[in-house]
């Protein structure tokens, strides 16, 4: 496994390959549907976003309530395709990476390639395990959204797989080619 740290600079992103397993350490931000809608509204109005987007990583997750020590009980990935309508604006602003589960649309895959970003896969159903990799958290924006607020979290060795690399190569394309019967993922 390759160990990488945030921020995800362009040089770092260009050296990641689809299917590669990584351990991510550093600052990332959680954001799901409601938070993405608000980010898009701010961008359309040319207002400042609540965190520096350049080379940042957004984790498509809505953490469960704290377990008593200030950290989440669970923090697993949500389906990434739901964010596709908001993703182009964030990629154009320099977003370095996204973490989620599932396929992305062809247009998002193409834009990831153009912007030299990266899409990571986290294992769905392993939210309690993944939450153990979070060492600190604080609400950054939209507190009224509860678990869909944007949280700034510090992770240590968060296990991920490069789903779509900066060249636009998609792990799902590789998986389907290896199967005797093609599945629609």
- Count of discrete structural domains: 1
Structural class: alpha/beta
Helix residue percentage: 10-25%
Distance between the termini: 26 Å
What fraction of residues sit in β-strands?
25-35%
The shape, in one word, is globular
Query: What is the CATH homology-level superfamily?
Result: Fe-S hydro-lyase, tartrate dehydratase beta-type, catalytic domain
* CATH architecture call: Alpha-Beta Barrel
**Could you state the order of secondary-structure elements as H and E?**
EHEHEHEHEHEEH
Low-confidence stretches: none
From the 3D structure, determine the CATH topology: fumarase
Q: What does this entry look like structurally?
A:
- This protein is an alpha/beta fold.
- The protein has one domain: Fe-S hydro-lyase, tartrate dehydratase beta-type, catalytic domain (fumarase, Alpha-Beta Barrel).
- Helices cover 25% and strands 26% of the residues.
- The chain contains 6 helices and 7 strands.
- The protein has a 5-stranded mixed β-barrel.
- The relative contact order is 0.23.
List the helices and strands and how they pair.
Blueprint: E1 2-5, H1 10-14, E2 21-30, H2 33-44, E3 57-59, H3 87-92, E4 97-100, H4 106-115, E5 118-121, H5 127-131, E6 134-141, E7 150-164, H6 171-178
Parallel strand pairs: 1-2, 2-3, 3-4, 4-5
Antiparallel strand pairs: 2-7, 5-7, 6-7
Quick tags:
alpha/beta, 185 residues, globular, fumarase
Q: Can I get a quick summary?
A:
The protein has 185 residues and is an alpha/beta fold. The chain has helices at residues 10-14, 33-44, 87-92, 106-115, 127-131, 171-178, and strands spanning 2-5, 21-30, 57-59, 97-100, 118-121, 134-141, 150-164.
């Amino acid at each position: 496994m390759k160990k990488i740290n945030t921020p995800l600079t362009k040089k770092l992103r260009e050296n990641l390959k689809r299917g590669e397993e990584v351990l991510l350490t550093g600052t990332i931000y959680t954001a799901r549907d409601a938070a993405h809608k608000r980010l898009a509204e701010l961008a359309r109005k040319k207002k400042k976003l609540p965190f520096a987007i350049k080379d940042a990583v957004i984790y498509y997750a809505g953490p469960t309530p704290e377990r008593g020590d200030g950290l989440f009980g669970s923090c697993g990935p949500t389906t990434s395709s739901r964010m596709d309508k908001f993703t182009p604006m964030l990629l154009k602003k320099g977003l370095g990476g996204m973490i989620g589960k599932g396929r992305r649309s062809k247009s998002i895959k193409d834009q990831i390639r153009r912007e030299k970003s990266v899409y990571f896969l986290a294992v769905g159903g392993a939210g309690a395990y993944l939450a153990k990799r979070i060492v600190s958290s604080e609400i950054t924006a939209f507190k009224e959204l509860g678990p869909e607020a944007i949280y700034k979290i510090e992770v240590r060795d968060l296990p991920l797989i490069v789903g779509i690399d900066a060249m636009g190569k998609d792990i799902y394309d590789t998986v389907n080619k290896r199967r005797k019967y093609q599945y629609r993922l």
